[in-house]
Amino acid sequence: MGENETVTVPFPLEIVTDRLILRSPELSHAEPMYEAKQESIPELRQWMPWAREETDIEKGKENIRKAIDEFKAQTAFWILLFDRKTGQLVGSSGYPRVNLSVPKVEIGYWLRTSRTGEGLCTEAVIAQTQYAFETLHVQRVEIRCDDNNERSWRVAQRTGFTLEGILRRDCLDLDGRPRNTRVYSMLPEEWESGSR
Question: HSE-up of 23 (CA within 13 Å, CB side)?
Fold first, then answer.
């Protein structure tokens, strides 16, 4: 990238993998998103703040509107995951934190409970990492997660990210207790060498 170039993520965005279609959010996704979240609340409420706050479809629509606004403003890029064969919304991922001056992005993710254990999250993370390096030309991709959230950090390991460290008592968990945060990263040269 040239010195004066900036990274931009097009809206709408669509990335297709073997089993998934990754799409930027639309208001029409509010109902299937709400359904997926409601199915998964018991598993997600210990990790995701919204799993404790989003109680009805209207709040879900408000969150979709916010996600669309953030996408267009280039401040955060939530991406919804759809099963390519059935069209079912299976979860959400994306780049919730970006620093376009470096540029770098962080990938976040969750899957609906009935679709965990199929490797879909791994597939989505690989696709987004590829997009970040090959299309956005970022210099760093991160995954951060609660040290206790083993399912989440196993995805980072499976996709070839390097554990840089565990930030001890880095922030508070959703119950207000100090928690440790795992920080994983991948750099463009690691992606290109196929060290995943």
Answer: 16
